[in-house]
Amino acid sequence: GSAYVFKNNSGNWSQVKKIVASDRAAEDLFGSSVAISGNYMIIGAYADDEDATGKNTFDGSGSAYIFKNNAGNWVQLNKIVASDRSYVDRFGEAVAISGDYAIVGAFFESQDAAGGNTLTSSGSAYIFKNNAGSWKQVNKIVASDRNTDDRFGKSVAIYGNYAMVGAWNEDEDEKGGVTIRNAGSIYIYKNATSTGFEEKEFGRNLKVFPNPGNGNFTIDLGDEWVNTEMSISDIYGKVIQSEKLFNSQVLEIDIHEPSGMYIIEFKSGNKNAVIRIIKE
Fold this sequence. Notes:
It is a single chain. The chain has strands at 3-9, 12-19, 30-37, 40-45, 63-70, 73-80, 91-98, 101-106, 124-131, 134-141, 152-159, 162-167, 185-190, 197-200, 207-209, 216-225, 228-234, 239-245, 248-254, 260-268, 271-279. The chain is mostly beta strands. The strands form six sheets. Strands 14-21-20-17-18 form a five-stranded antiparallel sheet, with no helix packed on it. The protein starts with a strand and ends with a strand.
């Protein structure tokens, strides 16, 4: 497979580049999905077998490639794969990119965001973020009402702080009822913060470590704060812990929930901060 870049010159679109994967191989199907945003491009190869290092073969696990436009020359920056890749996930079936974020669908993938609760071909999508030219996975998302063979991740889109994921085989309506076989659905997600940390006059010295961690986290608020409210939520917005803190600076947090991403919000008067943490 391959992809071709065209440029509009006063209404005349001319080819400026042909692109192939750095580790191209037979039947990878590179170019099965494409997206472009500014100087970045993402190209899917859902039948590719190897990880980003060219090893650890899983037939049809899939991959995607990030390219950047350098003065008209498009060069490959990263090959990206799912953190929990497995056989025939078809990661890269759908791709989208917007600014420093990209989303990749894997509609045959079967595990939830924590890597458990197997439901065959329920599907998933993965969010990647550009950090100084290196694109890293920051989230795995699945449907809140995931079910066998929904194929969530068949289509994806992203723009700013919003993402959409299609599940073309999903059966129920938005309330989880009125079943119509393979009617399909769309799920809309919002990024709580574009950087993983939203700071509004709460003190830029706020730190959390280790992150990722095994469930035990230390948070330094950067100063001693009075009458602070803390809440911890999962990625679906369910609050799993909340409490009021008095004259607190260094906190010890224990997450007893399954592995995955959690959002901690602090409020003190008109000041607030949001942190994303990952339990491995």
